[in-house]
Structures are given as C-alpha cells and as structure tokens.
Amino acid sequence: MSQFKFSIKTRNNRWLVIPILLVSLALLAWSDANFIVPLKNLSETSKGNDFGVFWTASRTIWQGENPYDSGQGGIFYNIWMGTGGTTYDVFISPYYLTAIFMPLAVFPLGISVTLWLLLSQLLMASALVFILKSSQPEYNPLWLLQGLGIILIWRYTFLVMMGGNISLLLLFAMATSYYFSFNKRPFTAGLFCGLLILKPQTVFLIVPLLLLVPSSSQNRKGKRLA
C-alpha cells in the first residue's frame, strides 16, 4: 500500500521533479566546489590527479599541439605549470580519451573539476539504478538511497572522486550495457559496452562477461516458464 501511495503522489506532483532535480544538482555542485575540491587542491595540476592530465592534454589539443609532447617549454608543459602545479606529470592515455574532456577543457581547471565531479556522481547514481532494475523485479526508490549511502561512505569511491579518474564512467558503461543486454536491446548494450575501450585493459575481462548476459537472461526466462 505504501508503494502504491508513493506512485500516486509522484504522478500528481510530477511537475516538481525538474525544479527539485535542478536544486539538488546546484547543491551538489556547491558542496563539490566548497568541500570536495579544496580537500586535495584539485584546481591545481599535480600527480595523482588524473583529471588534471586529461584537462591539460585536451587544452593542448585545442591549441593545435600534440599532448604527448610534454617537454619543457612546450604547450602541455606551459598549461600544466600555468595552473600553479608543482609535481609534473605526462599524458600517456589513448588519444581518443581526450574527446570526453574536450568540452570541459574550455573552462578553467577549477570549474572543470567541479563539473567532472558532478557528472561522475550522476553516472554513479545512474549505474546503481540500472543495477537495481536488473536485479530486482520491483524497483523501490528507497533502495537507491540506501545504495548511494553505502557507496558514498566507501573509501574507494571517495578516492576515485579525489583522483579525478574515469572509474565511475566505466562503472556506468558496464551497468548500462548489462541492463540493456538483459532487456534484449543488444545494439544499445553494445554502444555502452564500447565505452570500455577508453580503458583498453578492462576490455579483455569485462566484455566477455557482458556477452554472457543475453544467454543468462534467456536461461532465467526459461526457468520461470518452467
């Protein structure tokens, strides 16, 4: 009965969803900028901050230069040191990875870091939604809140957000691919599965497992019919 009342209330107040979402995103961005970002000085490039490397490489490309040319006096070096960075790093990731960060590279590093944190957190929440929808016959929003609470207090998740890497993006790609594959939408599943190429070393482990999802869901369907 409580779930029924929740669904009715949601339908009657659907117009509140967008304002509440916008306010929530604004509060999240504010907390990121004022509490999470300053903890590790993410607005300055430094070793251990993957986002700083991605941002610098993308900004170098915007200026028509090679991001792998990181010698002193080059564009990459000047951009890196121009943020106040001290410890120096180089870009060794696949070139196409910068395509994700090119839109963010037009902003100053501090703003870009906050936007990336916000995007990562949204991807993390979306991944949890797809996981819950795939594993439970009925979706309960309270499970989402409980799951987010558990994830956010997990030390590794916090370190991922501090490090600015793409782990949460890869989690989103895996969960989304699994969900659409489980629901017999292979082309959409393949599209999201393709995002894993951003981290080539994950492909050889994760993709074979994701390819097992259609047969697994088919076997489960057969058991239900039996």
Automatic annotation (TrEMBL):
GO terms for cellular component: plasma membrane. It is a multi-pass membrane protein. The chain crosses the membrane at residues 105-132, 153-175, 187-213. Coiled coil: none annotated. InterPro entries: GT87 (IPR018584). The keyword Oxidoreductase does not apply. It is found in: Cell membrane. The keyword Cytoplasm does not apply. Keywords: Cell membrane, Membrane, Transferase, Transmembrane, Transmembrane helix. GO terms for molecular function: hexosyltransferase activity. Belongs to the glycosyltransferase 87 family. This is DUF2029 domain-containing protein.
